[in-house]
Amino acid sequence: MSVAAQFEIEYLHYMGADGQLVRDDLPADAANPQQLLALFKRMVFVRTFDSKSVALQRTGKLGTYAACIGHEATHVGIGASMRSGDVLAPSYREYGTMFERGVRPRDVLLYWGGDERGSDYPRNADAAIDFPICVPISTQCLHAAGSALSFKLQGKPQVAVACCGDGGSSKTDFYAALNAAGAYKLPLILCVINNGWAISVPRSAQTGAQTLAQKGLAGGLHCLQVDGNDLIAVLEAMRQARARALAGDGGTVIEFLTYRLSDHTTADDARRYRGQEEVKQGWAREPLLRLRRYLTAQGLWDDAQEAAWKAECGARVDQEIDAYLNTPVQPVEAMFDYLYGDPPAELLAQRAEVMAMEARHG
């Protein structure tokens, strides 16, 4: 029998759930425990922000919010691996990645509070050229592919990174992006964050593929599956993918295995479709627990440091919440002012009508 093609998908994993290393050939990131400590502290900050954001929604001070608890190693690791000039096209949950790029927590809160100014990132941040949060599933993958094509045509040493969920890897935009990336050898990294659930649809009902990473083979991309709760593995996978892209060897699809410890959003109740035992197992594998164990064993972390840092994170997040809550509301005419460079007469008439109503009724 002749064989047309054969393939294997590499699985990258350095640290077990118990915080013990499972490999001796550690990358440079693991050889620098101080870097891991700094990133761990940022992961704790993300979790603090996340829990306080959920509380804001529950008290009516924030709109529907998509929590990220359980994704911290993947999100922070992706962001920490990017460089100035790279472009991020996120979905709607990668706050840790966005914070690494210079997005402020108040910006995320403004977005979920219904204020479009939350997507107007600081001009001096790497995120100033990033795409905004994208709720439509996987459409951002094509935006990232377009950015990657621009980088290649201009000969710029930059990469585009798109994030989507496991369900997003079954969307046509995802396939179109990976096909373009393969055909033109684009410097594109497609990060599939597999947390087990696409809202209420389990991974097993989404696709017949053995891995989500292998979907990249159809486009001729390099493919890799990673323990997304292992910060070392996330950093190394991103380093390899970025180096490959800058060398002209094309894009990569990385499947990050993690778990959504929360509901899909604050409008969801995951108890209706998944069991307690599954969630319990997810908590046993979560990223902060394992990295905390590792750093404690290295003599770099203890309970006193943990308490002090959590208190500092809480205070910093509270400052961001205050900034969000005290942001002046946009004037009513703002909904008309940023649609056209040369507004049509109909829109100008509507603007005048609304402003007249505002003047009468306040």
TrEMBL record:
<comment type="subunit">
    <text>Heterodimer of an alpha and a beta chain.</text>
</comment>
<dbReference type="GO" id="GO:0004739">
    <property type="term" value="F:pyruvate dehydrogenase (acetyl-transferring) activity"/>
</dbReference>
<protein>
    <recommendedName>
        <fullName>Pyruvate dehydrogenase E1 component subunit alpha</fullName>
        <ecNumber>1.2.4.1</ecNumber>
    </recommendedName>
</protein>
<dbReference type="Pfam" id="PF00676">
    <property type="entry name" value="E1_dh"/>
</dbReference>
<dbReference type="GO" id="GO:0009083">
    <property type="term" value="P:branched-chain amino acid catabolic process"/>
</dbReference>
<keyword id="KW-0670">Pyruvate</keyword>
<dbReference type="InterPro" id="IPR001017">
    <property type="entry name" value="DH_E1"/>
</dbReference>
<feature type="domain" description="Dehydrogenase E1 component">
    <location>
        <begin position="41"/>
        <end position="330"/>
    </location>
</feature>
<dbReference type="InterPro" id="IPR050771">
    <property type="entry name" value="Alpha-ketoacid_DH_E1_comp"/>
</dbReference>
<dbReference type="InterPro" id="IPR017596">
    <property type="entry name" value="PdhA/BkdA"/>
</dbReference>
<comment type="function">
    <text>The pyruvate dehydrogenase complex catalyzes the overall conversion of pyruvate to acetyl-CoA and CO(2). It contains multiple copies of three enzymatic components: pyruvate dehydrogenase (E1), dihydrolipoamide acetyltransferase (E2) and lipoamide dehydrogenase (E3).</text>
</comment>
<keyword id="KW-0786">Thiamine pyrophosphate</keyword>
<dbReference type="InterPro" id="IPR029061">
    <property type="entry name" value="THDP-binding"/>
</dbReference>
<keyword id="KW-0560">Oxidoreductase</keyword>
